[in-house]
Amino acid sequence: MIHLTEKTEIFIATNPVDFRKQIDGLVSLCTEHLHKNTRNGALYVFINRANTMIRILHHDGSGYWLATKRLSQGRYQGWPKSKAPISSAAASQLRFLIKSNTCQSLKV
To answer: Number of structural domains, the chain?
Structure first.
């Protein structure tokens, strides 16, 4: 189970990801390109190229979770743009992102 608290580390991939990648592909992306250890309990958040889906990768100590949200209508707006391939976010920002179809307040 994914527990989201204010102490949870959350990393946002700033570039869109090919969602044909599943757990192994996203783990590889995190370790090779983002230089992150995915077994550290942090959440890794990705968006697809069309800005209609997000994925959250998490290792809970015994295995990986991969959560996906696909919007029925609309697109996520305001996904963080950065020269860095990854940014950090607060739990409140991720909750907002999960509950809505916009991420305009996601300032990282």
So the answer is: 1
In a domain, 61, yes or no: yes
Per-residue pLDDT at 80 exceeds 80: no
11: confidence class by pLDDT, cuts 50, 70, 90: very high
State the pLDDT at residue 96: 80
What is the span of the domain harbouring residue 28?
10-99
Is residue 26 domain-resident? yes
Distance of CA 85 to the CA centre of its chain: 12
Report residue 2 CA to chain centroid gap. 13
Residue whose entry in the numeric block shows the structure tokens 């969602």: 19
